[in-house]
Amino acid sequence: MQCDKPVGNSTSELFQQVMNSSRVPPETRILISLAILPLLNLHLWQYAGVAMHTLYSAIFVLACIAPLTAQLPPASSAENNVAKAHQALERDRPDEALAILQPLATVLPPVKGVQHELGLVYYRTGKLAEAQHAFAQAIEQDAQDKESVQMEGLVLYRLGQPAAAIPYLERVSQWMPGANADATYVLGLCYLNAQRYDDARTSFAMQYGQAPNSAAAYLLLATMLRHANLPDLAATQAQKAIDLSPNLPLAHFMLGEIALYKSNIDQAITELEAERHINPDYAPVYDRLGDAYLHLDRLDEAQQALTKAIALDTSMTGSFTNMGKVLLRRQDTRTAIMYLRHAEKMDPADATIHSLLSQAYHRTGQDDDAKRENALASKMHEENQLNLETGK
Questions:
Q1: What does the alpha-carbon distance between residue 154 and residue 255 come to, in Å, rounded to a whole number?
Q2: Cβ neighbours, 10 Å, residue 221
């Protein structure tokens, strides 16, 4: 909208133009008249010309910008809308929140909190790139917005940019040490990705309330490295934990599992036996020992270990399955079927169990049962292979 410039050089001409302008509200014209009358009565008009000329020009400017300023929402109204958007998001109505926030995002100067809330909306709806951009803008507008700093780090990690996430998550850790488990955990994962293992150990230790240089901290790091499919590095850290505390529970167990995974059976048995002495009521150690002895065909020791595992914990399907394998090798087919059928009830989708049952039924002349179990095993193998090929 354009406003014509005031015309006329004399103050009286300008006065008339202001008083006759439709852009000057009636109430403003009344106030001007009230201000001018005393000057006229006192015959001071000639001294007030310059001042009044300036006043009238200012009124024209205000009249011109009034329509523009009317288009901007009042500060209180904008803040109320941000609060409404937040409430909508809390009620799991992100579309409603987005409809409120998007118009506010174009307002200048920026409305406080809009980019922060937009980032949350995008994050919760899986739009990570948009969320990252919104949180970056929120931080630019307010460097002390702690939640936006934290969310920027988490989003960057989820976008596959762990190195870029580290500075943001480090700031959160400095601001609120130990206050946010998610940020501390993700920071540790970022350090792992960057091969900053000492920093990762410190981060995980902080999360779990352990001293960074303690044996427990090294074992925590070993566990995270195993989850990251880095068994050799995990074994190194587990050994450091044992060097600091030889009787630390589960450290020898981890070394035994890694050795068993790498088919180093003798080392696995050594480590698992060491764990058994430290942790004699821990069922998984007997389960793994039974598996290790089964690999070496030491059937008596395997059966003893698996019996102890089942006595301590009846929920481990693997112990029942391995017991079935041991008994089949010992030609105790009927008892093997009993253990394998129990395992089948626990995990009906395990192809190995159906294959072993097929062998057992075939030995006992139960050919129909053998065919049924063999068909189930074949079907599950095909499904598993298809899932591997399709990446499911």
A1: 32
A2: 29
Question: What is d(CA 340, CA 343) in angstroms, rounded to the nearest whole number?
Answer: 5
How many whole angstroms separate alpha carbon 216 and alpha carbon 204?
A: 10
Question: What is the distance between the alpha carbons of residues 74 and 194, in angstroms, rounded to a whole number?
Answer: 48
Helices (H) and strands (E) in the chain, counts: 21, 0
| Cβ atoms of residues 291 and 298 within 8 Å | no
Measuring CA to CA, which residue among 214, 195, 191 is closest to residue 203?
191
Tell me whether the omega of the peptide bond preceding residue 74 falls within 30 degrees of 0, making it cis: no
DSSP state of 210: -
Task: Report yes or no: 340 and 350 within 8 Å, Cβ to Cβ.
Answer: no
Q: Which two tokens stand for residue 24?
A: 């000057």
Q: Tokens standing for 73? A: 């929402």
Confidence at 18, pLDDT banded by 50, 70, 90: low
| Confidence band for 111, pLDDT divided at 50, 70 and 90 | confident
Q: How far is CA 244 from the centre of its chain?
A: 33
Mean pLDDT across the chain:
85
Burial class (CB in 10 A: 0-12, 13-18, 19+), 32: middle
User: Which distant-in-sequence residues (6+ apart) come within 8 Å of 243 by Cβ?
Assistant: none
pTM for the structure as a whole: 0.73
Report the range of poorest mean pLDDT among 23-32, 73-82, 242-251: 23-32
Q: Give the residue-averaged pLDDT of 309-313.
A: 98
Distance CA 390, CA 386 (A): 6
Segments making up each domain of the chain, as ranges: 11-67, 92-194
Q: Position of tokens 């989820």?
A: 158
Q: Which CATH superfamily groups domain 92-194?
A: Tetratricopeptide repeat domain (1.25.40.10)
Tell me whether residue 390 is exposed, middle or buried, using C-beta atoms within 10 angstroms of its C-beta: 0 to 12, 13 to 18, 19 or more. exposed
Q: Judge residue 276's burial from the number of C-beta atoms within 10 Å of its C-beta, 0-12 exposed, 13-18 middle, 19 or more buried.
A: buried
Taking Cα atoms as reference points, which of 128, 132, 175 lies closest to residue 152?
A: 132
